[in-house]
Amino acid sequence: MIILVINCGSSSIKYQLLDMKSDEVYDLLAKGLVEKVGLPMGCITHKPTGKDKMYKELSIPDHKIGMQIVLDALVDPEYGVLKSFDDIEAIGHRVVQGADFFSGSAIVNEDVISKIEICCDYAPLHNPAHLLGIRACQHVLPSVPQVVTFDTAYHQTMPDYAYMYALPYEYYEKYRVRRYGAHGTSHQFVADKGAKFVGLDLNNSKIITCHIGNGSSISAIVNGKVVDTSMGFTPLEGMIMGTRCGNIDPNVVTYIMKKENLTPDEMTTIMNKKSGFLGVSGVSSDARDIDTAANEGNYRAKLVFKKLSYDIIKIIGSYIAVMDGVDAIFFTAGIGENNVRLRRRVCENFSYMGLKFDYEANVAQGVDTLLSCPDSKVKVALITTDEELVIARDTMHLVLGE
Description:
Blueprint: E1 2-9, E2 12-20, E3 26-35, E4 42-48, E5 54-58, H1 63-74, E6 90-95, E7 106-107, H2 110-118, H3 127-140, E8 146-150, H4 160-163, H5 169-175, H6 184-198, E9 206-211, E10 217-222, E11 225-229, H7 250-260, H8 264-273, H9 276-281, H10 287-295, H11 299-323, E12 328-332, H12 333-338, H13 340-347, E13 369-370, E14 379-382, H14 387-400
């Protein structure tokens, strides 16, 4: 089954085209990224398997045009991988927030769309863009079935005492104010893949998955079920991130608003887009830029990585307590897969658990690698994530009625 996987941002469309024979047997036909949708000049980077990369700058006024550009690239005489649009048998979408409406993926219909719209309040930076992608696909490929996979679905196994906030209960009843988490698709994939990689039975294990990137979250997984995760009502909660502040005293919000005469929307922008790595360092939101600045002696850049390491250590430590131990810790996503120093700093703090870190193996970047010594009581590994593959698998099963 040929499946187009779409991940829409507010001004971007990330995509992969996969030929799914089964869960484990598949071919990546092409992948790419459409950027600067709605800006004066946009661009597409298209990478067909076995062919040269294509890059074009062109006007992309909206997501409908963006989706048409993606499809045109897939059937392009020189760079394409399909004979016609009719070859696409299903479309799978990543959706950040499904609240407690969804505990798994779903076939798109108007009821599903209406619930995604309700969840826009919980993920205002993400869900509206996902809806644009869904509507754009309906417009361009109206007869092709679509499936949505939610970042929040995997976390629906959290117990109530883990997901509830200690606010008046009426706000949970009236507005669904509770912790939902995010990156669930990645945590699910990495926990399953990682368990197999280090020789654990997922259904009889205590695993901590660390998805560390521009957005970061950590999950505690017991016997394949999430019992806690670091993101909350929105993806803002948890550790320091690229432009997000992570955990802060809630009174800081009202204090700054009063001092700076800010509206709620302005304060939301500060916490989501002007804080984190960017806000602390004053250099960049990109960890690679921060790393360069830190190596050049920039104090605030060094502070970013110290805080990131500290936040991760605190969260992992709390999850070890919650689970009464841990069998494995997995690092994934852009920073988790590539930042050697971060992994070392974190793991050195868990020698009391019998974790013996393999410093030589830790030079690995972007390749599944065991990072613990053979006699370590806790397994540690770098596990590459593939959220698009999870989406493609779920899409295939739902469309086939399996």
